[in-house]
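Example record used in the benchmark description.
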Amino acid sequence: MKRWVEARGFFVEWTHLEGRQRHQSELPGDGEIREHIEVFEELLDGVMTDFFALRHSIDDLLNEINAKVAEGGDE
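Model output (structure tokens):
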């Protein structure tokens, strides 16, 4: 969770400047930006993988239940 909060804070800081002037030397480099993007990719990949695995399990269960109902089984 700490990595997510840090990466999010980094992007919020740089996307919501709201009129603040920053000198070019203060801007983050490509490497630093890439590191924070990689955190999002890694963490979101884990969340999305679990979500879709669960979603497929639910779909399989619903298909099985619906097949029984269509056959006149347990309603």
